[in-house]
């Protein structure tokens, strides 16, 4: 790249869906000849893609904007917090531009204004799958924007709008390009993966000479043709999720579901404006496991929601004890500016929230430790993420990057493993989060 090329610094905050937005902006910047640089000093302008879901995310975003202004001076702001420009302008009135999530055109217009492009088509080459912020062996595949739910604790629809699905052929073509680029694992993300295609009335589209419906099952059938690990995130436990479990049992999809249950008390779920048939949910989970015993279920929960009583909390503990979820994240309820839940009566005192959170996580740690211990002595197919000294740091089919556990392969370096390699690992030990094992050849295993 020529030294005279305009240079852009980039800060990406927030969830995997925001990460995909960042990747699309970065790809367009490179297509137009901009050089992406890793330091404020080298950048002619800095783009900050913000998060604005909870108070701590707002604070982190404002801090990032402030740091970029202090270190560089020219800052363009986009992302979820951009839907609340007054918050940004009050804290940082000197930013060059503010735009909301998915507003790629506004970001590029602001960059063009601050830093006109100098494109040279002979040297500015971008792979056809675009630029990625993840390691090259896995990638997030965003299938839709927005959400039709109106959960009382969430302001995502006000930031990202109602559900807008991408046509299934468009998604499958992107996945195919990623596979050609060396991606081994696709992580399907959206605000509600189960609702994919409902806004398009599940319209059928053609890919590779075959028609696929723009709905979760059709998408999964198409992705299974690529021979990649395909992992589903943000899945609501609707009845039609039953249709994809056989694909997992047949090895066509990773046996993994990320389902944000959020709570288990019907009363609290009603206050959250979430589905509340907990008994049916447990039955569904048990039926899925009967069809696909290898199924891993991860989830997230909110503890201390306004009005949560001791009885409600005990119902939550009973649910995770019965459901035996494999991976669980939880956080104490925190008011989100603009959320309907702020108006609910009977807030839970902070010390009670923290005490309940500690009890919840202690119980889940016991469940997780016991479930992982059952894997000792088994052989797990793993994907290597990194080499750390003698160790290879990998993930099994049960582990999504950054949010789940790891498999530490003790002889990874000696076995010649490198990031992006698949390998079979004999599990020799475990703790409440991770597995430990050794590589073996067919005779050893």
TrEMBL record:
Pfam families: Radical_SAM, TRAM_2, UPF0004. Its cofactor is [4Fe-4S] cluster. It comes from the Bacteria. Its EC number is 2.8.4.4. Residues 133-370 form the Radical SAM core domain. Residues 6-116 form the MTTase N-terminal domain. Binds 2 [4Fe-4S] clusters. One cluster is coordinated with 3 cysteines and an exchangeable S-adenosyl-L-methionine. PROSITE patterns: MTTASE_N, MTTASE_RADICAL, RADICAL_SAM. The keyword tRNA processing does not apply. GO terms for molecular function: 4 iron, 4 sulfur cluster binding; aspartic acid methylthiotransferase activity; metal ion binding; protein methylthiotransferase activity. Keywords: 4Fe-4S, Cytoplasm, Iron, Iron-sulfur, Metal-binding, Ribonucleoprotein, Ribosomal protein, S-adenosyl-L-methionine, Transferase. SMART domains: Elp3 (SM00729). [4Fe-4S] cluster 2 binds at residues 147, 151, 154. Its main location: cytoplasm. SUPFAM superfamilies: Radical SAM enzymes. It is found in: Cytoplasm. HAMAP family: MTTase_RimO. Catalyzes the methylthiolation of an aspartic acid residue of ribosomal protein uS12. This is Ribosomal protein uS12 methylthiotransferase RimO. It comes from Arenimonas donghaensis DSM 18148 = HO3-R19.
